[in-house]
C-alpha cells in the first residue's frame, strides 16, 4: 500500500514565478541574456521583447504570437549549448533577483508540510532550474515542444497563461488527487486574477496597479517580498 500518497498533506501553496518569487521577469531576462551573448540580434530582439512585456503588463498580450517569438531561439541551439547558457543565466541573472524574503516565504510553507507548486507562463526550459533553486518539485509551465532532442520552436499543449493557468492546474489536480480546499496562491499580476479567484487564500505580491485595486476591493492580502534587493 502506498501510504505516502494516502498521508500526504493536501494543503497547497502555489506561487507565480516572475515578479513574485523573483524580483524580475525570467522570460524577459533570458531574452536580454541571449542578446548580450550574441545569439539573437540585440537591438531587434530587445525592441520586440519590450513590446511583448508592455503588452503583458497591459493585459493585451497575444500569447501565441509571443511564444512563436520567444521559443524560436531555443530551436536554433543544441540542448548542450542551451544548458551551458542556462547555467550562466542562473548565476548572472536569476540568483541576484531572489530575495531572502522570497526564500523565507517558501520555507514557511515547507515547514508547515504544505505541498509546493510553481505555476508560470514562462516556458519550462527557463523555469525548471529556477524551481529547483527554490527546492520546489512541482512545476506547471508553458511546455516547449521537443522532437529528436531538439526544441522545435512550437508549444506543446495549452500555454500556462491567464485562464490557461486555471485549466492546467485543474488537470494537475485531477491527476494528483489534490484540491483547493485549503490553498494559497501568490502572484503580482492582474493576468492571474482568474486563478487567484479559485484559491482559498489569494495573496497579491508587490502587485501591479490593476491587481492592487482588485485585491483591495475583494479584501485580499497584499504583501511585499523584494524590499531588500
Written description of the protein model:
The chain is α/β, with parallel strands linked by helices and 229 residues long. The protein has a single domain, classed as HAD superfamily/HAD-like (Rossmann fold), CATH 3.40.50. It is 51% helix and 19% strand. The chain has a 7-stranded mixed sheet with strand order 4-3-2-1-5-6-7.
Q: What fraction of the residues are assigned to beta strands by DSSP?
A: 15-25%
Q: Give the overall form.
A: globular
Give the terminus-to-terminus CA distance: 47 Å
Q: Could you say what the CATH topology is called?
A: Rossmann fold
- Would you identify the CATH architecture? 3-Layer(aba) Sandwich
**Helical proportion, percent range:** 40-55%
Strand order of the largest sheet: 4-3-2-1-5-6-7
> Mean pLDDT, as a whole number?
92
Indicate the radius of gyration in whole angstroms: 17 Å
**SSE run:** HEHHHHHHEHEEHEHEHE
CATH homology-level superfamily: HAD superfamily/HAD-like
Largest sheet: 7 strands, mixed
Number of separate domains: 1
Label this structure with key terms.
229 residues, alpha/beta, 7 strands, globular, disordered N terminus
Gist?
The protein has 229 residues and is of the alpha/beta class. It has helices spanning 3-7, 17-21, 26-36, 42-58, 63-75, 79-94, 100-111, 124-133, 163-176, 193-196, 209-218; strands at residues 12-15, 115-123, 138-147, 150-156, 183-187, 201-205, 221-223.
Amino acid at each position: 500500500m502506498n501510504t505516502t500518497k494516502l498521508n500526504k498533506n493536501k494543503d497547497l501553496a502555489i506561487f507565480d514565478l516572475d515578479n513574485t518569487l523573483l524580483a524580475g521577469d525570467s522570460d524577459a531576462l533570458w531574452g536580454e541574456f541571449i542578446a548580450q551573448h550574441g545569439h539573437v540580434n540585440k537591438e531587434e530582439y530587445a525592441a520586440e521583447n519590450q513590446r511583448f512585456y508592455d503588452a503583458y503588463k497591459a493585459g493585451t498580450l497575444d500569447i501565441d504570437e509571443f511564444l512563436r517569438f520567444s521559443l524560436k531561439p531555443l530551436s536554433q541551439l543544441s540542448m548542450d549549448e542551451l544548458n551551458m547558457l542556462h547555467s550562466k543565466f542562473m548565476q548572472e541573472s536569476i540568483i541576484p533577483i531572489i530575495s531572502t524574503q522570497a526564500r523565507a516565504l517558501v520555507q514557511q510553507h515547507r515547514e508547515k508540510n504544505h505541498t509546493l507548486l510553481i505555476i508560470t507562463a514562462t516556458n519550462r526550459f527557463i523555469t525548471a532550474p529556477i524551481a529547483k533553486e527554490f527546492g520546489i518539485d512541482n512545476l506547471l509551465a508553458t511546455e516547449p515542444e521537443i522532437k529528436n532532442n531538439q526544441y522545435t520552436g512550437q508549444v506543446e499543449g495549452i500555454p500556462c497563461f491567464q485562464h490557461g493557468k486555471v485549466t492546467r492546474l485543474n488537470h494537475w489536480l485531477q491527476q494528483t488527487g489534490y484540491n483547493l480546499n485549503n490553498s494559497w496562491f501568490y502572484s503580482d499580476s492582474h493576468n492571474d486574477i482568474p486563478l487567484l479567484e479559485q484559491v482559498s487564500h489569494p495573496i497579491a505580491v508587490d502587485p501591479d496597479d490593476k491587481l492592487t485595486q482588485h485585491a483591495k476591493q475583494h479584501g485580499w492580502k497584499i504583501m511585499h517580498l523584494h524590499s531588500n534587493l
